[in-house]
Amino acid sequence: MCGCVSEPRNGGIPGPGRKFPVICIAGPIAAGKNQAASVLERRGWLCVDADRLVHDILENLKDKIVVLHADAARKRGISLLNADGTLNRRAVGQIVFSDPAALAAQESLVHPAVDAALHTFIDANSDKPIALNGTVFYKTDVFKRCSAVLFVDAPKLIRFFRIKSRDCLGFRQILKRFHAQAGIFAKYKKTNADIYKVWNIGKPYALERKIDKFLAYCRYKGY
């Protein structure tokens, strides 16, 4: 199944002076968001990897992150810092993906910095279409500037083996990540965004064709 998933909805407002759209590439872990971003890049889009951006921001905020999760780390007997002094993101992940309150507290620190960086990037690149690639953009202020959402999904079993091969995570760790992202599609629908959903279950060229249909849809909508 692919295509517009609901009645036509309102697109976001990219900002004054922009001639090109801003869209969001969303979807659960290991669905193929980066693969979709690569297709768009080959078609002239600027794509921002939110995961990489968040990694940089977490490192900049590591002192606050360590204080925030100190008690949880002590109870688990894990270190939040690597031997070289950088933030141990895997240890942080163990905490936030098993405790919604810890995740929410961390997001309250990280999301304002993400918003600021992305607003600046969008304003500085008004001459090209932009795709923001990430999982939980519906929680951010910059999401209001997205004309449409390209929601990439795949069955859980396929995503499970992709994660196991790519990230070398254990069974329980993968399930915790699945649980943390449960109902993500419904959460995007509640935003009243214009959502176009594609399933990434075949060969790369199949996803590429679906994305070309999405781009045709965007042109039809006037984004």
From TrEMBL:
Domain of life of the source: Bacteria
Pathway(s) this gene product operates in, as recorded in its UniProt entry: Cofactor biosynthesis; coenzyme A biosynthesis; CoA from (R)-pantothenate: step 5/5
EC primary class: transferase
Signal peptide: none
Keywords, alphabetical: ATP-binding, Coenzyme A biosynthesis, Cytoplasm, Kinase, Nucleotide-binding, Transferase
Record's catalysed reaction(s): 3'-dephospho-CoA + ATP = ADP + CoA + H(+)
ATP-binding keyword on record: yes
CDD domains: DPCK
GO cellular component, as recorded: cytoplasm
GO MF terms held by the record: ATP binding; dephospho-CoA kinase activity
An example Gene Ontology biological process: coenzyme A biosynthetic process
Transmembrane residue ranges: none
UniProt entry tagged with the keyword S-adenosyl-L-methionine: no
Binding site for ATP: A30, A31, G32, K33, N34, Q35
SUPFAM superfamilies per UniProt: P-loop containing nucleoside triphosphate hydrolases
EC number(s) from the headed UniProt entry: 2.7.1.24
Cross-referenced InterPro entries: Depp_CoAkinase (IPR001977), P-loop_NTPase (IPR027417)
Compartments, as annotated in UniProt: Cytoplasm
UniProt similarity note: Belongs to the CoaE family.
Function: Catalyzes the phosphorylation of the 3'-hydroxyl group of dephosphocoenzyme A to form coenzyme A.
Name recorded for this polypeptide: Dephospho-CoA kinase
Organism of provenance: Treponema brennaborense (strain DSM 12168 / CIP 105900 / DD5/3)
Originating gene: coaE
